[in-house]
């Protein structure tokens, strides 16, 4: 295992080298300035998987290394001129195999960087075989670091040097990655973004104050995703931006009678507009993200003919993205967003006029969740094999409202119980979401097919698209069969008992 | 984990150079790679400057008294480890013969390493013996270097017959040309004939070059000290093997 030591200010690299040289044959391999840049996705996917991604650039080489956050063990390493944005842009080697399932569609971004002077030494035996690697990093703003990289099968040498360092220089091993020190110096910390809601509400908070806190959290999520959405860094900025918009819309319509009517009307319209201007780009993103999967649904000899469809979708996405960026740079957007932020930041009215504003947030949460839960059950029970698709679409929207309400208020309830209910609701939502996605994609694909026929696309392309449309239809029908089972699982008596116990405290 | 054995009945055809250089290329691409030196001459151990010594001796190794892991030595290169051999391994057939199911023993020893390595290269001694059969059982691929000469060609035929006779269908036989002199007409003719008779033969050829011979002086894989045509040939051969494995 790699051992790191932090050198106190009074210990210099030269002193350290002198101590180690007395014991072993030390070869200076290199001494050069290095720029270390740390990479991760915006939502810290690598860090969450205990991976530290470090890009070291020097005049000699540029190396990207993945190491384990806790053990510092090297996981993968490759020489690169620059770090690609997406895992699929790496050449097909180990690095890509590790990054692809973790990052998926998210882009790698530079998180922070630091300059240092790096000394690399090898301790060699009589055969000039390296038996231990030593690295000293000298920083301007941080304590210098010494790292020992033992070679498998030569552990005794590493043990001997650790003893020398501990006894003569009184150093203790540390297991804190340098990344954490750099972030700390910038008043940042890892995992500082997650699309999951974690709103610290307490049961006795006044409902209007609590709802402002919820909306402020959502506004923060929207704002941090704004520049990435405009720059189209990856598709998930827009995805999370839209989630913040949808949650806000649900909040404005479902956390009723707490905020003044004029505010609710004004901002409902604003967030509805945001939903509209972002939907086309997101739909096209989903098409492009799933394109390889779609291709696999048609016979091998027709797959290449779908490239024309890919071109059409990519062109439409570029156009839609441009339009979206224009909207998000408009005066309408910035003025209304600033007004919303100003309202949320304003001092709460001591005598609110709204009927539910003075309720405790727990009482309001119980009321709203229980009511929407009952609506989910009622709408779901009305669905059978003959019900038109619109009913499933309506139920999907009601489920989403219930999910967001439960997520807004989850701090008010026993964590294990509400998390379990949310999980089960999510399973039902997945079925309804897939049904809706297939229906929308099928419909849009028909539209694209007509458009491409007009522009004289080859018969093979049109045929492949027809097969895809048919495939969507089959999947849609299969999911509909699955819905009955999933809905029964959701409304089972055990769940109902928990819903009742948690949320029906003031109602029958 | 894929096990690739550098194997030929004939000696001096480039097995060790193949094992060392292909393993080096795999490791450079980030794959966790191990070379197991099975030839008592200990040439691959020598190339990596690792002492030719089996901790506990060959007897304990074959009897399974130690896990292979304790015998592993890290090389001077990232992602690349080696299990050294020593002269006691010359009696390995006798030791194997003392075991129940002797031809399963190499595979059994390798099994616990499955999660630690992506590729294991076996540097095999030149012979057809009990150890060879154990290697055939353990390997996913038999990489067989052939010098484009009549004698070498004969050993390929013998190997093919041995595999067929013993129904050793598990390992994929991938011959490749080694020590090729592109100026020699005979080399060209034999290569053409082999490619026609054994379509599985890899297309990349390893030239006969003095910088490969220098590995003994440098004591490191070719790619670590040279960017020559020969170093590129091993890199290309590795890419071709990867494609075949896919």
Mean pLDDT of chain A: 92
Residues in β-strands, percent of chain A = 5-15%
Order of helices and strands of chain B: EHEHHEEHHEHEHEHEHHH
Helix % of chain A is 55-70%
Number of helices of chain B: 11
Assign an overall shape of chain A: globular
**What's the count of strands of chain B?**
8
Please report the distance between the alpha carbons of the first and last residues of chain B: 13 Å
As a whole number of angstroms, the C-alpha radius of gyration of chain A is: 29 Å
**Share of β-strand residues of chain B:** 15-25%
Q: For the record, give the distance between the C-alpha atoms at the N and C termini of chain A, rounded to a whole number.
A: 61 Å
CATH architecture group name of chain B: 3-Layer(aba) Sandwich
Along the chain, the helix and strand elements of chain A come as: EHEHEEEHEEEHEHHHHHHHHHHHHH
């Amino acid at each position: 295992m790699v051992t790191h030591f932090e050198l106190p200010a009074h210990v210099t690299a030269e002193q350290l080298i002198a101590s180690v040289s007395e014991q072993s044959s030390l070869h200076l391999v290199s001494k050069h300035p290095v720029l270390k840049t740390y990479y991760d996705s915006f939502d810290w996917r690598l860090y969450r998987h205990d991976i530290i991604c470090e890009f070291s650039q020097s005049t000699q080489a540029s190396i990207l290394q993945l190491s384990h956050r806790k053990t510092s063990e090297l996981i993968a390493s490759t020489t690169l001129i620059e770090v690609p944005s997406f895992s699929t842009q790496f050449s097909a080697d180990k690095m890509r195999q590790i990054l692809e399932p973790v990052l998926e569609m998210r882009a790698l971004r530079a998180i922070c960087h630091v300059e240092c002077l790096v000394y690399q030494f090898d301790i060699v035996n009589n055969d000039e075989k390296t038996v231990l690697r030593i690295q000293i990093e000298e920083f301007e703003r941080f304590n210098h670091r010494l790292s020992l990289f033992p070679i498998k099968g030569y552990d005794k040498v590493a043990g001997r040097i650790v003893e020398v360092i501990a006894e003569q220089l009184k150093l203790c091993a540390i297991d804190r990655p340098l990344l954490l020190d750099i972030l700390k110096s910038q008043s940042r910390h890892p995992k500082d973004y997650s699309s999951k809601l974690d709103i610290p509400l307490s049961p006795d908070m006044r409902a209007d104050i609590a709802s402002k806190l919820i909306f402020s959290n959502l506004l923060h999520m929207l704002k941090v995703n704004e520049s990435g959405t405009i720059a189209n860094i990856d598709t998930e900025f827009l995805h999370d931006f839209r989630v913040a918009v949808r949650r806000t819309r649900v909040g404005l319509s479902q956390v009723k009678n707490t905020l003044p009517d004029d505010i609710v009307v004004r901002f409902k319209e604003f967030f509805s507009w945001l939903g509209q201007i972002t939907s086309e780009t997101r739909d096209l993103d989903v098409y492009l993200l799933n394109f390889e999967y779609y291709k696999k649904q048609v016979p091998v000899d027709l797959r290449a003919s779908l490239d024309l469809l890919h071109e059409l979708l990519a062109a439409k996405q570029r156009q839609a993205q441009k339009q979206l960026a224009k909207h998000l740079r408009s005066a309408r957007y910035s003025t209304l967003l600033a007004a919303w932020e100003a309202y949320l930041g304003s001092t709460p009215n001591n005598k609110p006029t709204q009927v539910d504003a003075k309720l405790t947030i727990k009482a309001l949460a119980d009321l709203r969740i229980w009511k929407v839960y009952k609506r989910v059950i009622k709408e779901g029970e009305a669905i059978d094999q003959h019900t038109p698709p619109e009913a499933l679409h309506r139920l999907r929207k009601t489920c989403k409202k219930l999910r967001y309400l439960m997520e807004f208020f989850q701090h008010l309830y026993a964590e294990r119980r509400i998390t379990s209910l949310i999980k089960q609701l999510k399973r039902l939502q997945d079925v309804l979401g897939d049904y809706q996605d297939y229906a929308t994609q099928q419909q849009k694909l028909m539209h694209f097919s007509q458009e491409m026929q007009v522009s004289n696309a080859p018969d093979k392309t049109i045929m492949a698209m027809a097969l895809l449309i048919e495939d969507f239809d089959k999947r849609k029908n299969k999911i509909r069969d699955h819905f009955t089972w999933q809905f029964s699982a959701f409304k089972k008596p055990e769940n109902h008992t928990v819903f009742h116990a948690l949320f029906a405290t003031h109602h029958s | 984990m894929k096990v690739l054995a550098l194997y030929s009945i004939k000696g001096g055809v480039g097995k060790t150079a193949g094992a060392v250089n292909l393993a080096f290329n795999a490791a450079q691409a980030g794959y966790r790679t191990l070379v197991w030196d099975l030839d008592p001459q200990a040439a691959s151990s020598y190339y990596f400057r690792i002492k030719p010594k089996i901790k506990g001796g060959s007897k304990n190794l074959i009897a399974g008294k130690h896990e292979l892991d304790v015998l592993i030595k890290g090389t001077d290169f990232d992602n690349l480890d080696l299990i050294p051999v020593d002269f006691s391994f010359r009696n390995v057939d006798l030791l194997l013969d003392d075991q129940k199911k002797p031809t399963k023993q190499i595979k059994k020893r390798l099994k616990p390493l499955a999660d630690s390595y992506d590729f294991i290269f076996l540097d095999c001694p030149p012979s057809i013996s009990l150890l060879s059969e154990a290697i055939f059982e353990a390997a996913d691929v038999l990489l067989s270097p052939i010098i484009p000469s009549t004698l070498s060609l004969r050993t390929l035929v013998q190997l093919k017959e041995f595999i067929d006779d013993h129904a050793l269908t598990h390992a994929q036989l991938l011959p490749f040309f080694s020590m090729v002199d592109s100026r020699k007409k005979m080399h060209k003719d034999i290569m053409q004939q082999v490619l026609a008779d054994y379509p599985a033969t890899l297309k990349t050829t390893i030239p006969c070059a003095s910088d490969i011979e220098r590995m003994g002086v440098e004591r490191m894989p070719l790619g670590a000290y040279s960017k020559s045509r020969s170093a590129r040939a091993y890199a290309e051969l590795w890419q071709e093997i990867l494609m075949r494995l896919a």
